[in-house]
Amino acid sequence: MSVYREEIHLRARDVDLYRRLRTSELFRLLQEAAIRHTEQLGMGRDKTLDKGLLWVLTLQRCEIRRMPEYDEHVVLESWPGRSMHLLSPRYYAMTTAAGEELLKASAIWCLVDGASRKVVFPEKYGVVIDGVSTGGEIALPSAMRRAACTQEAAFTVPYSYVDLNGHMNNARYFDLAEDSIPAAAAGRRLRLVCTEYAAEARLGETLQVRWAAEQGELDEYYLEGGAEKTCFRMRLGYER
Asked: For the whole model, what pTM was predicted?
């Protein structure tokens, strides 16, 4: 069974003012784990990036029991699910070094032609990753229910938010979101994250970011943003 495993020591740069792992850093760690595992499986940049192919995220879900804190040692695991035509599922789990479950996540990745920006079949380019099942997977993410937004602000994509794919990196959307809503700055504990990436946001592009608060089992915030097209949708659920 092919499961990627990495031990991580959380340092000051990784956490927020409450000494908890930043949401954006968490999703950067998940992204990097997926990339490193793909490389370990022999499907690295020589099969993709060097041939003009890009891995992009389309959907993510994360269920959080406890966000790890400064100076903790954590264990991150990641493994691929069974491919579904154009869609490549991937799963994640994070525990403490002692085995306490911290969070689980799932994601849908797609392979895209870098020139046309169209989704392609990985098998056509010799990119084959066998899926596994550990029994510990959470549900895969799905398209998001939209909400009526009550607040809006403009955001221009800065240079520092753009990655090697030439667009705003998926993890930086969490910085944008948590800078927009009051929950993170107030120290509220994040429990659920759902994201949908529908289109690219390029350097210098100005997005209209809209959001609204909703109440349920969790205090939720729905956010969306885009210019001519909606680029992202997101739900962040905080402990009440």
From this structure: 0.94
